[in-house]
Amino acid sequence: MNESGAEPGADEWQASLASYTIQAPSGSMVTLHAWVKDSAGNIGSKTASIYFNTAAPVVSNVVVTDNGDNTATVTWTTDIPAEGSANYGPVAISGATPNTVSENALATSHSVTFPIVAGMNYKLILVNNEIASAPIYWPKPWPIDGDASMDCRVNILDLIFIRNKLNHPSAPATTGRPTSIMTRGSTSST
Known about the structure:
This protein is mainly beta.
């Protein structure tokens, strides 16, 4: 196997190939050439081009659109070519995203469409070359009645959040303004 496309020399043939290390820098398109030779000396070859990258793609420009036909489309970009997919599921499933819709293209602009139920809030996780993004909630599902901690769920954590807010001592006002003191028959300022 090589990246040059040149047929191997007489001393370069191996009985088998366990692995091959790509010589190109990360972030480049690489064409690999596989060469085979049978015992009669017949030679065959096959090529394949891949985008070789060792860094995780950075996701940006995420937009989710309701298509009005019980589907939604999520679009996003990545800083390097990547194959994309979206895991999605109702927020009510408590963290699970059981469904996946994928695209089969190596690109920096991505778009996938998935079925939706009107009035339901969804959690989306974009996946590019096996690197998952942080969850995206669509439509933005809060405020949910009782969701004080803004985590898209109503549970004991909301009660703890409220208790902690109520237990905070209030600081005295220190605005620097003079205060008036009323005494019998007079007013004085401090």
